[in-house]
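JOB MANIFEST
job_type = single_chain_structure
chain_count = 1
residues = 186
[input]
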Amino acid sequence: MRSLPNLFLIGPMGAGKSTIGRLLAAELQREFLDSDHQIEGRCGANIPWIFDVEGEQGFRDRETAMLDELTQRSEVVMATGGGAVMREVNRQLLRERGTVIYLATTVEQQIRRTSRDRNRPLLQNANPEQVLRELFAIRDPLYRATADVVVRTDRRGPRSVVGDILRRVSRLAEPLGDSSPLSHQR
C-alpha cells in the first residue's frame, strides 16, 4: 500500500477526521498531519484565539497557506478543518495533490461528539445544532464535489472506518487488470 497517494480527510467537525487519520496513518506507516494543529503550532495560539483576534477571514487565510504547504509533502495522511472546503483554492489543492476522503456523519452524531468541546469557535453560541445544520447545508455539497471517496462514520468504530477506507482507496490505486473491458479492445 505504499504506492497510495497522499490521503486527505475532509468532513464536518465531529466526523472523526483526527482519530481516524491517526489510525490510518499508523496502519500505512505514514506521517499524520492535522492542519488545524499545524496552524496552532505555527501561531502559538489556539484556533478560538485566532478567530477572536483575526476573525474567520484571517483564520481561513492561514488555513489556505498551511494546506498549500502540507499538501506538497509525500506519503502523508492529513485531517483538514471542517471549513477547509469553503475556498475553491483549498478544494483544488486537495484534489490535485492526493486522494480526498469525505468522512460523512449526521448532525446528531456531530452534536454528540462536539457538545463539550470548547475549541470550536463556530459552536460557541446559543444554538449549536442550528449552526451545525446550516453548515451541513452549505458544506455537504462541497465535501461531495471534492471527495474521491465518501465513507460514513455514524455508529461505526474508528478501526472499522479505517478498514473501509483502506479497501476503497486501494481499489482506486489498482491498475486496470486483464479483466477490464478496455483490455479486450486490442
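[summary]
Strands lie at 7-10, 31-34, 76-79, 99-104, 149-152.
The chain has seven helices and five strands.
exit_status = 0
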